[in-house]
Specification:
By secondary structure, the protein is α/β, with parallel strands linked by helices. 24% of the residues lie in helices and 26% in strands. It contains 5 helices and 10 strands; from the N terminus they run βββαβββαααβαβββ. The structure holds adenosine-5'-triphosphate and magnesium ion. Adenosine-5'-triphosphate binds next to α1.
């Protein structure tokens, strides 16, 4: 099960309110895309839903559990938004970054299959500082998949990834979703992404509007 309910959430940093009275919910198996202009609060909202931003009581529920009491974070995979100047100060390899999580549920064969699927099998022993931005992004996506997550949260995961790998990436995300993994995706490429999303949450000036995909007229685009 993976259900998220946000009930009248307002959130800000210091004196500035970023999210204003946001309410929406998603159910197991949903594929939610969050869209909105730069600075509209997309990353802030998912950080609230992941317990990274502390929110007041009874505003967010995961599987009907108040978020401040929620404990099964192992069921959630998260790929944070990439920063262009992202850099590790120490020489860690791809394999090391993938195995620091001792919680991985994958055996060796499954791990190699996943690395192969993600196109990073050959990069296992590379120092991550030598990877391209897109390769590094694929390492982080792979890491988020290591625990067989029930919910996968992806914050602009394909920025810096080339078009072939973007296509492969959305095929994989769509497959995971059809296997029952709930997806929350932030992207600016909603029309070209080929993501099989079921709902769109549009953030504008701190307010949110949720639309079910069957209610959207894409003018033949999707
Ligand atoms: N840790 C923080 N401290 C203070 N202000 C912040 C912090 N994180 C975000 N903000 C501010 O909150 C607002 C929303 O930021 P957020 O990162 O959620 O936007 P976004 O919709 O994800 O934008 P983008 O499309 O650029 O990723 C911005 O005005 C930003 O400056
Ligand atoms: Mg963001």
């Amino acid at each position: 099960m993976m259900r998220i309910k946000v009930d009248n959430l307002s959130f800000g940093y210091d004196y500035r309110t970023v999210l204003k009275n946001i309410s929406f919910s998603i159910e197991s198996g949903d594929f939610l895309v969050i869209v909105g202009n730069n600075g509209s609060g997309k990353s802030t909202l998912i950080k609230c839903c992941l317990g990274i931003n502390k929110v007041p009581e009874n505003k967010i529920f995961i599987d009907d559990i108040e978020i401040n009491d929620y404990q099964k974070w192992i069921n959630i995979g998260y790929v944070p938004q990439k920063f262009d100047d992202f850099n590790y100060e120490f020489p860690i390899t791809v394999n090391e970054i993938l195995t620091v999580s001792k919680l991985s549920k994958l055996d060796e064969e499954e791990r190699l299959t996943l690395l192969d699927k993600m196109g990073i099998l050959e990069l296992q022993n590379e120092n991550i500082n030598t990877l391209s931005g897109g390769q590094l992004q694929r390492v982080f996506i792979t890491r988020a998949l290591m625990n067989h997550p029930k919910l996968l949260v992806l914050d602009e995961p394909t920025v810096g990834v080339d078009s072939d790998n973007i296509k492969a990436f959305y095929r994989m995300v769509n497959d995971l979703n059809s296997e029952g993994v709930t997806i929350i995706l932030i992207t600016h490429e909603i029309k070209t992404s080929k993501a099989n999303f079921s709902h769109i949450l549009h953030l504008d000036d701190g307010r949110a509007e949720l639309t079910h995909v069957c209610d959207i007229d894409f003018g033949g685009d999707k």
